[in-house]
Design goal:
Strand content: 5-15%
Largest sheet: 5 strands, mixed
Strand order of the largest sheet: 1-2-4-3-5
Oligomer: single chain
Number of helices: 5
Helix content: 40-55%
Length: about 200
């Protein structure tokens, strides 16, 4: 029985620390959401296409990497396109440093492009919109390099690859009513959770 007071105190202290951790995590999430254009990319770059300007707006954008001083790209070499990773994993994370896919491609004389995304999707954005947007991004890269081989793309691929056409992908990307309902429920739950956090924990 003498251990019970210590147990209760320990439980209370751990609960306070856990709630404080949740508070900090929530504040970080709000800070990220307040800076929607934040990207893992650390290279100087110029925006070529903002996905918000497309006929079906998306939260993606196409940028061209500005080579560091002393590096001169060859526009006739195969252009390299790095796709921003979700969850900070895979090859696109190389945007953090010069010793990466981006740095190596720039050093080898390739023109490098970067497809990044902001934290919050555009209103009404759907999977197929992202596919169509990225088709436009790659189309722009091809236009900019008429005498070069088709672009080389690298990104957070965790899948089996099979030959597909854009029409195949469009067919897969169409939403169903059942899927729309499921996503609407999840979106509403997220709104409720955010409201509870802002009112009680923040």
């Amino acid at each position: 029985m003498t251990a019970w007071p210590d147990y209760i105190v320990d439980t209370f202290q751990r609960s306070v620390l856990f709630l404080d951790l949740l508070r900090q995590r929530g504040n970080q999430q709000l800070d990220t959401a307040a800076h929607p254009l934040t990207t893992v990319l650390r290279f100087e770059h110029e925006l070529l296409i903002d996905g918000k300007s497309l006929s079906r707006p998306i939260n993606y954008s196409l940028s061209r990497i500005v080579p560091p001083s002393g590096f001169v790209p060859d526009p006739q070499k195969r252009p390299v396109v790095v796709v921003d990773p979700r969850a900070g994993q895979a090859s696109g994370i190389g945007g953090f440093k010069s010793d990466s896919e981006i740095g190596d491609a720039v050093a080898a004389g390739h023109v490098v492009y970067f497809i990044g995304f902001s934290a919050v999707p555009e209103q009404g954005q759907q999977f197929l919109d992202v596919i169509e947007g990225q088709v436009e991004f790659f189309g722009r890269v091809v236009e900019l390099h008429p005498d070069a081989p088709l672009p080389f793309a690298t990104g957070p691929w965790q899948a089996r690859f099979e030959g597909r056409t854009i029409d195949d992908i469009r067919a897969v990307g169409r939403n169903t009513r059942q899927g729309d309902r499921a996503f609407a429920v999840v979106a509403r739950l997220s709104e409720i959770n955010l409201a509870l956090y802002r009112n009680w924990l923040q």
